[in-house]
């Protein structure tokens, strides 16, 4: 029987790894490393990724604000659907009558 192991998502090592290489790559590195959370440098080596470039002082790993996108307001006027009255024949029930 195969035992399925998942990383502890609350672990600081896991959070650091996810922040460095992303969640999908972190899972792959975790499984390839024998279900042990690797450090970001080792994870990049396991996955064959290039080393990360050092951050400049202006860059930070904190979440940046997303640019605001202006969405134009759209106004839709709803009008009642008017269905014409259809007269039934001698032996038929009326199908549509009135407005909906």
Question: Would you give an account of this structure?
Answer:
This protein has 100 residues and is an all-alpha fold. It has a domain at 12-47. Helix content is 28%, strand content 0%. The protein has three helices and no strands. It has helices at residues 12-21, 23-32, 40-47. Helix 1 (12-21) crosses helix 2 and helix 2 crosses helix 3. The longest helix is centred in the first third of the chain and has 10 residues, at 12-21. The chain is elongated.
- Describe the sheet with the most strands: none
SSE succession: HHH
Portion of residues within helices: 25-40%
Q: Enumerate how many helices there are, as a single number.
A: 3
Distance between the termini: 61 Å
Mean pLDDT: 76
Low-confidence stretches: none
How does the overall form come out from the CA principal axes?
A: elongated
The total beta strand count reads: 0
Strand content: under 5%
- Rg (C-alpha, Å): 31 Å
Query: Structural class per helix/strand content?
Result: mainly alpha
Describe the secondary structure blueprint for this structure.
Elements: H1 12-21, H2 23-32, H3 40-47
Salient structural properties:
100 residues, mainly alpha, 28% helix, elongated
Summarize the entry for a quick read.
Helix content is 28%, strand content 0%. The chain is mainly α and 100 residues long.
